[in-house]
Specification:
4 copies of one chain form a homotetramer. By secondary structure, the first copy, chain A, is of the alpha+beta class. Chain A has helices spanning 18-25, 51-65, 119-136, 156-164, 174-192, 255-264, 307-323; strands at 4-10, 34-41, 74-79, 88-94, 101-109, 144-152, 217-222, 227-235, 242-249, 275-284, 291-292, 295-296, 329-332, 343-351. Chain A is built from 7 helices and 14 strands. A 4-stranded mixed sheet of chain A has the order 1-4-2-3, with helices on one face. The first copy, chain A, has a 4-stranded mixed sheet with strand order 5-8-6-7. A 4-stranded mixed sheet of chain A has the order 9-14-10-13, with helices on one face. In chain A, β2 (34-41), α2 and β3 (74-79) form a beta-alpha-beta unit. The model of chain A has no long low-confidence stretch (mean pLDDT 96). Chains in contact: A-B, A-C, A-D, B-C, B-D, C-D.
Amino acid sequence: MPPASVFRVATRTPHDVSGLAKLLDSGACQAGDVLAAIGKTEGNGGSNDFTKEFAIASIEAELGRRGARTDHVFFIMSGGCEGVMSPHVTYLVRATVATGLTLGVARAARQPPQDLGRMAQVRTVADLVRRAQHDAGIGRSSDVHLVQVKCPTLSPIEIGTARARGEQVVTDDPARSAAFSRGAAALGVAIALGEVEEAAISDASILEDWTRYTRVGCVSSEIGTDWHEVMVIGQAADGDRYRLGHGVLEDALDADSARRVLAAAGLEAGAQASYRLAALLAKSEPDPRGSVRGWRHTMLSDADVGAFRHARATVSAVLASVCGDPGIYVSGGAEHQGPLGGGTLTVIAERQ
Amino acid sequence: MPPASVFRVATRTPHDVSGLAKLLDSGACQAGDVLAAIGKTEGNGGSNDFTKEFAIASIEAELGRRGARTDHVFFIMSGGCEGVMSPHVTYLVRATVATGLTLGVARAARQPPQDLGRMAQVRTVADLVRRAQHDAGIGRSSDVHLVQVKCPTLSPIEIGTARARGEQVVTDDPARSAAFSRGAAALGVAIALGEVEEAAISDASILEDWTRYTRVGCVSSEIGTDWHEVMVIGQAADGDRYRLGHGVLEDALDADSARRVLAAAGLEAGAQASYRLAALLAKSEPDPRGSVRGWRHTMLSDADVGAFRHARATVSAVLASVCGDPGIYVSGGAEHQGPLGGGTLTVIAERQ
Amino acid sequence: MPPASVFRVATRTPHDVSGLAKLLDSGACQAGDVLAAIGKTEGNGGSNDFTKEFAIASIEAELGRRGARTDHVFFIMSGGCEGVMSPHVTYLVRATVATGLTLGVARAARQPPQDLGRMAQVRTVADLVRRAQHDAGIGRSSDVHLVQVKCPTLSPIEIGTARARGEQVVTDDPARSAAFSRGAAALGVAIALGEVEEAAISDASILEDWTRYTRVGCVSSEIGTDWHEVMVIGQAADGDRYRLGHGVLEDALDADSARRVLAAAGLEAGAQASYRLAALLAKSEPDPRGSVRGWRHTMLSDADVGAFRHARATVSAVLASVCGDPGIYVSGGAEHQGPLGGGTLTVIAERQ
Amino acid sequence: MPPASVFRVATRTPHDVSGLAKLLDSGACQAGDVLAAIGKTEGNGGSNDFTKEFAIASIEAELGRRGARTDHVFFIMSGGCEGVMSPHVTYLVRATVATGLTLGVARAARQPPQDLGRMAQVRTVADLVRRAQHDAGIGRSSDVHLVQVKCPTLSPIEIGTARARGEQVVTDDPARSAAFSRGAAALGVAIALGEVEEAAISDASILEDWTRYTRVGCVSSEIGTDWHEVMVIGQAADGDRYRLGHGVLEDALDADSARRVLAAAGLEAGAQASYRLAALLAKSEPDPRGSVRGWRHTMLSDADVGAFRHARATVSAVLASVCGDPGIYVSGGAEHQGPLGGGTLTVIAERQ
């Protein structure tokens, strides 16, 4: 893949492509050069959130109207803009000169249901990460700053069919299968990048051994997808338009780590900055132990507002207060992505 | 009123008084000495949130079981523990020696419906604040660090009756009457403390002129109450067990101001602290202009999760990330309490 | 307009057009002959429900792919499929022979903001209804069985601009403006059909005099629309494929009236039926008096679930239990559409 | 147990005992004679619904104020008054003369965690039902018209502890344990009443073999309880003040079965009735197959409103439309209580 530029565009509704249209009309980039679209949409982020599909369909239609094909575009839309988190889409677009930012993509059809949430899935994802890293032309794993994964879930029908065939799927609960899939994919990232030894984990580690995790993966499960898709983003040898940094949040309130990651990307609080925020992506989760810093939280027992909504509201508020910018991407479901109760964080800064 | 001590107690449910019982059993304070209870309960914070009443009834029953009367106790319970905000009650208890913290209380029966949300209410509250400040023995307004007000709302029946009598109430919408009542009460605090000149405001200022506000008031509307109740908390001349500070948040992400208020109370980040957090109370609101720092927010258009829930989740996350402690009190409805989109903040620190 | 046929199609998601595609592929009708699409989509029915737009965009794309224009199609999508109400779209399609069902459409650009919710809007809608009835070729008002109206609301920006110009809009609350718009439009229907004398009502009647209402109107407010659109559906002189009936529900539990309307359309419980249900459309509302049949309801005070969601769940359950079919259309917001606490009901039956 | 009378009392809030106070003040019954209180409270019915405990605490306090003991009172409070279902409490009170209605109660401490959701629990409940039936003095099972069961759930701590001990609990998911507990308890009722042969079921039947169910059980799981409690209500040989009937709903829309049960208790639509409704209790569930009468429902995929809330709104609307009375008790969680997708129904009628 070639070098890439980053354009962050606010949206007024899930299907608002006026910002994209303006960007394309300005000549800053071409419809055919869009490589990826990473967005937050204002749905509930749950199983009946259709804002993600609506955003993707609208972007595809806009690009299509301009004669561009879109089947290669890597789309990640995450529903749920709680609190200050502001709906937006970040476009990664092919650049004609070196920018310092590179990306690579790899895809594979999903495996049989019984492989989901197990080592077979871990290895599949690890292989895709290696391929995407190669596609990005990144030699050293330390130059990888984001591994974005889209992974499948088990539907009620798949669970029933597998059971009828005598296959043992990892769980009978579709919602739980999403967590297993994210967890296995995250461990796949960790193995590919050398963060965890493959020999150190087994089926039993997944959603159990929380000491094993990736510091750079960002995994989204997608109900209904038949694919694993991986995008690797990293620092290229050439170009200095973009500087990247990444790290983990130890818990939902870990502003200190956020400051360190921002600093690593050239963004220091109060500094006379030559770089500005281009994109911030993080994972979050309601701490499954039921408390944060010794105080009970109620995210898990709230029957009115989903736990992920609470977690996204919290982590996006903390991160936005640190970087001063609500146009950020915080997604829920951080299994094996950062330590338990925490999450991963990637920052892209742009020279100004 | 005498000097007071502060005890912050985590709760496991709205009606959990085991922490209070343990505190009383320990001899640290006596049931008859409880002056105020300020708590966050894990309801939705809306019109069908009964966790506040349940908490109060449970505390009253526990104190009653120990032979104490409770009709003088100042109760403020705020529903809604979104995100990391942890359910707890802070008890203010009569102390036998000077602590540096003093409080005073004043009450008045509510006025006729047509006065609500107008200058008549402003003046009533201003008068109560002056009386409570006197009761607290605080001479200078600059020593007042929190004015907590409970104010009434208009019920559908009151609105209908007033209209039938030909009285013009400030609004026909019960929910809106709560905002008017909070706004008028806040301006009453501002006048009593000399923050705003009475001549500078009129009926038309309420919920309109957002340049007028208190920096120290914290107002809660209570559906069904027939009272105005005011509690003033401040720094006493004698004693150094407690240090207080207050200020305003300019917006929902204003971590800098929070750090300044913490520092004013002797709590500085990273410092070798001789004081620790005893209580933090803040008001929050979804910015009615629909954006924060130039980015659209979706709190006001979310038909699934109330705007106040979004705002409390956000502000409590920011404040908890600054002070490192989720046992804080963030309440919704900051009309004329701090600048538009922001809120007030009070910190009580205790010598350790 | 020509005679029309009715095709009711279940949907699996808001953007599922596979049923429409199958219908068109079957040759039962042509893409270019679609006149109207009336659907229920599985959003929350509130201000952040984008499922309606997604459904419309998806249908337009499908028809467009088949070479049909869609700008004349009358779309009504109603969000909120609570309880048993099942997501579906009912297509009204041009027929080549007389069917007994006819429809007509009329549109007008919206008026200035200060006219909304007032007699000016009432008269505009009345005029559109007369035009649409004429377009449908229906001579007698008693042959009109459904008047579907789409009407605008006031946005916060419009309210602010009008106030800045010194114009007095009917309300400062955008949500309330939707109710005013529906109420005025409903009274416009009533006047056009001779149900209410124009002289009997004035600005003051709207959302106040609940004894005035239409028995046949079904009004939907649309945030952001710049149009009034009216569709009249009725019984044509020729053809007996469809039989229509309409009436009002006296309250949310009025199964008896529902049975009478079904019977009027040829659908009687237990009867050896020669007709079957083709479509059922109804309006619902949470009774604003706070009770149903003498018992308090909690729809209006539930801060977690919107009142319209409660009302749609209730009325759709009652109607589905009467007609035995959950593929029905129940929409919220029944101001001046049927008596207070009730709503209107239209049934289309098809010979089998 | 003696004969009992039935008093149904509307409540204005979960803690409103004014209706109870009025009843007791009227002399119609004595505080010490209250045997059971069965109520609906206006919470969300989920894991953070505290309205049930608040109602019980308030009733206990009111009875206590009047000198009555309450530890023997059988309390069942069910949260969630969706749609038209109206908050109320039905009191069963000791009568001095034969009324035709009798009840009996039995209790047992809960078993070890690994027994929950298995045959051990089935047998425990079956035994309790037999004891309660005996306590009620009911000889024939056909005279039993309601078996109300309260059963425990597994907490996250219990699940963790059991796993640490090497015990295999039936599920690792606390929410799922509630369903297992209700299902096992329901099968216990079925065995005790001869509806199902014990030999016909095994551990594997629970939440699997939906052809096995009770037609008369109404089971509520209670988070945190350490008890199984069973109340049997039936028709006594002597007295005709009350007539009882019961049956099952085949699905959520089964108005016909409801009419039959009402008729069996002497309540026929349109009839010159000598009896009137005293109480109606039913179980409901969102059909786990995802459809009702061939149409997809969205109760299970709605991330904003819980599936049980949808189901209660639906079934209460259907039943209230049949009996004309919203003061009814419809509870969620009908595993093995009526056929899949349906539920049980009990009616108590009183001579007027």
